[in-house]
């Protein structure tokens, strides 16, 4: 499990390989990732949007931006956490993801970024 804390917000990531499939005559590798966002600060916060940079071993880069996470904009009081699962597809058996969440602190009304630690995606059969 990969973990990182930014401004009292702890991000934990677990990844899983889901398998391969053929799409448009090209093999794709499917991965899921489970993210837990835990508010370790003294203020209530809300996640507003996300930014992802997804890179595979063939040096293909995909940028994903959007509101919330899986259709939600969770509000976290001090000590609360939110866990969600999502996924991505790569055209190689290895890759990595990194990014950040745009959040707002309800006490100060200030917006801030929470870094998502870089994590690796790898198909177990491709490892030595």
TrEMBL record:
Residue ranges of domain ApaG in the record: 3-128
Pfam families tied to this protein: DUF525
Coiled coil spans: none
PROSITE patterns: APAG
InterPro entries: ApaG-like, ApaG_domain, ApaG_sf
Name of the featured protein: ApaG protein
Organism: Mesonia phycicola
